[in-house]
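Help needed: design a sequence for this.
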């Protein structure tokens, strides 16, 4: 297909036709006059320069926002490096630091003195210093490399550009592409790696409602945790921190969220939506759902199992429940029909110009054909990945042992796997993986060892699982300790089952890899065409999220999820007590928490009811546009003060990665005053409260 670069229309058109809506994860550096005007119409009291201004470090709200390894967001709330984020963002670190003797997930963690703050290995916190538009430089570099006959792919270009900017700025630089490569930006970061855990409530506070309440409203979750950033052994005195508002808010109050949303795909074609709805989501949801059922059974039965598998289960359940809701929302909100209507507009625009016809006349039908021709094998690959590779937790340790260069490292990997898993759980997961794999996969893909297993055991997957497990090095500590050669690892029957059929079998069948690459190329070209159409028409347009800093704005308010149903905009501690169920881990409370909630002494953290502070908000709703990666983002009022932490979306919003549905997309936030109440009344962390500046 020809690739012709259209002469660029004035970039100002990009945001010139903003609709009066809260949709959009806008690039922080591109708050132009039109967007600023729209935000002020919603109630913003700040200027654009008070939100982001690279030329005035330490003066803007965005200076206090930090990326936690580009998987979550946090914000500085003291001049001593104190960062607040979500509990579920810190969940993995809390789990790693926990032991059966000190279970910080169940009991909470409170560093009552500075020397009790616990180092977290492997964390990096990123503060954005400046964003550069490097589109022209990227094009020039590509041309130079091509003229020399050198590799000019995106990875090579990114590496060279990042090195160039790191040398000139002295900062860590990451290049990002927008609109399928039509624009390129370089983000320069100051990075800190000495990060220590300061505070984390127990799961009965920080994750109340658990997996059961995930993606639902109302919520009563105090989803927060705190870290401190150190440099050269002392807390960082950063140039900007947020003030915590105790003034409150009400329906219609302005709210903005600044953070690092991970990935959206709102320029997706109807072919991509159809693939997700009919192929990818049904397969992955079925398989993950089966794994969750097994894990939940054993976790509910044994607290040691819960500790070992809590992190994996948390990640698995979050993904699976999101995907189930996504599939439902695709149908409910007719996302495919929306994309088809978009494609009709696009085709009309293409047909109206000879130059555009030359580039894209057959783009949409070719794209549909490419997806259709690859759907079956893509489904097979999902079953392969979710059963053979991800069907058990122990498999990752087997791979580590298999790739080890020495006997000592191989033993270490095997023993770590045995220590960090439970044989009952692993055997149950293995049996399910075998059942799903052999039942749903074409025998064309079976490896020699897998064929022998099927011939020997037939459909008796319990017996097959017993055989693989009992003869594996991970079945007992003594077997792992008795490892005498690396060949034993290679001949381990469980390892042989996992590695017997490589992914290349799927990619090579019928030239599948080439067909899938073509589908991906056509999808990118479709997004470019859509970008140029919107740009030329002067339509509202923002790039898909890609872990760069973004801002979204909206207001506080409830919503109608279904006909005849109204959801209030806030929840209270009454909801916690109403849901309390000591027989259900997700809704259990510890004695101290329950007594404090029943007493209802909110002190200065509550809000006035009848002249006294008798009220408390736990969580509240806004219509800010968010996605994964925004977790922990500061929710700010019209003056840029902290009023809450974004931590979830509602189930009606789960198609939002590809389609924003006005009136249904809601952002669920923890009220910052309830966080302060927990720190004060529950944990007694006066030293932390003394660091924070409050706006009354």
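Sure. Designed sequence:
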């Amino acid at each position: 297909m020809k690739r012709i670069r259209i002469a660029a229309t004035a970039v100002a058109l990009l945001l010139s036709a903003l609709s009066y809506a809260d949709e959009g994860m806008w690039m922080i550096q591109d708050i132009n006059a039109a967007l600023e005007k729209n935000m002020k119409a919603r109630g913003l009291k700040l200027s654009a320069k008070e939100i982001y201004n690279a030329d005035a470090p330490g003066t803007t709200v965005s200076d206090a926002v930090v990326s936690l390894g580009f998987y979550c967001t946090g914000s500085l709330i003291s001049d001593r490096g104190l960062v607040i984020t979500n509990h579920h963002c810190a969940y993995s670190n809390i789990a790693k630091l926990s032991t059966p003797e000190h279970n910080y997930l169940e009991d909470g963690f409170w560093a009552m003195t500075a020397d009790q703050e616990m180092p977290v290995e492997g964390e990096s916190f990123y503060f954005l210093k400046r964003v550069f538009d490097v589109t022209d430089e990227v094009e020039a570099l590509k041309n130079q490399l091509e003229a020399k006959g050198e590799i000019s792919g995106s990875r090579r270009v990114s590496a060279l550009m990042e090195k160039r900017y790191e040398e000139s700025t002295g900062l860590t630089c990451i290049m990002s592409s927008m609109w399928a490569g039509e624009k390129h930006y370089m983000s320069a970061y100051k990075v800190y790696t000495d990060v220590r855990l300061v505070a984390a409530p127990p799961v009965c506070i920080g994750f109340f409602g658990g997996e059961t309440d995930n993606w639902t409203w109302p919520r009563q979750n105090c989803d927060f945790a705190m870290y401190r950033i150190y440099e050269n052994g002392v807390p960082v005195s950063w140039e900007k921190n947020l003030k915590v508002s105790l003034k409150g808010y009400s329906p219609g109050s302005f709210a903005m969220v600044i953070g690092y949303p991970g990935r959206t795909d709102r320029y997706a074609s109807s072919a991509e939506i159809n693939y997700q709805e009919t192929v990818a989501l049904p397969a992955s949801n079925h398989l993950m759902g089966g794994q969750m059922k097994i894990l939940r059974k054993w976790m509910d039965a044994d607290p040691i199992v819960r500790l070992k598998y809590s992190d994996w289960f948390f990640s698995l359940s979050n993904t699976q429940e999101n995907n189930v809701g996504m599939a439902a929302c695709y149908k409910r909100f007719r996302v495919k029909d929306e994309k088809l209507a978009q494609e009709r507009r696009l085709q009309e625009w293409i047909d109206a110009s000879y130059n555009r016809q030359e580039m894209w006349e057959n783009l949409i039908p070719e794209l549909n054909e490419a997806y259709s021709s690859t759907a079956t094998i893509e489904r097979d690959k999902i079953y392969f990945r979710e059963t053979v590779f991800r069907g058990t937790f122990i498999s990752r340790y087997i791979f580590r042992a298999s790739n080890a260069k020495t006997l000592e490292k191989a033993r270490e990997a095997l023993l770590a796997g045995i220590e960090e898993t439970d044989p009952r759980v692993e055997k149950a997961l293995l049996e399910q993986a075998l059942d799903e794999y052999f039942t749903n996969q074409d025998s064309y893909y079976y490896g020699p060892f897998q064929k022998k297993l099927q011939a020997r055991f037939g459909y008796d997957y319990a017996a097959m699982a017993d055989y693989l497990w009992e003869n594996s090095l991970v079945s007992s500590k003594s077997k792992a300790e008795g490892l005498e050669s690396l060949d034993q690892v290679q001949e381990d029957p469980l390892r042989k089952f996992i590695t017997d059929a490589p992914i290349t079998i799927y990619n090579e069948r019928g030239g599948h890899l080439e067909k899938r690459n073509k589908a991906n190329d056509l999808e990118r070209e479709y997004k470019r065409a859509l970008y140029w159409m919107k740009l030329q028409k002067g339509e509202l347009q923002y790039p898909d999220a890609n872990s760069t800093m973004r801002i979204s704005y909206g207001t506080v308010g409830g919503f109608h999820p279904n006909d005849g149903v109204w959801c209030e905009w806030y929840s209270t501690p009454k909801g916690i007590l109403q849901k309390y169920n000591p027989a259900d881990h997700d809704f259990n409370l510890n004695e101290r928490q329950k007594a404090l909630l029943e007493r209802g002494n909110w002190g200065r953290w509550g809000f006035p009811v009848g002249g006294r502070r008798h009220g408390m908000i736990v969580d509240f709703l806004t219509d800010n546009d968010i996605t994964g990666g925004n977790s922990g983002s500061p929710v700010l009022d019209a003056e840029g003060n902290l009023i809450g932490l974004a931590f979830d979306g509602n189930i009606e919003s789960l198609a939002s990665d590809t389609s924003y549905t006005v009136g249904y997309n809601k952002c669920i936030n923890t009220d910052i005053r309830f966080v302060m109440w927990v720190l004060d009344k529950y944990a007694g962390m006066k030293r932390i409260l003394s660091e924070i500046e409050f706006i009354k």
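Residues 129-191 form one domain.
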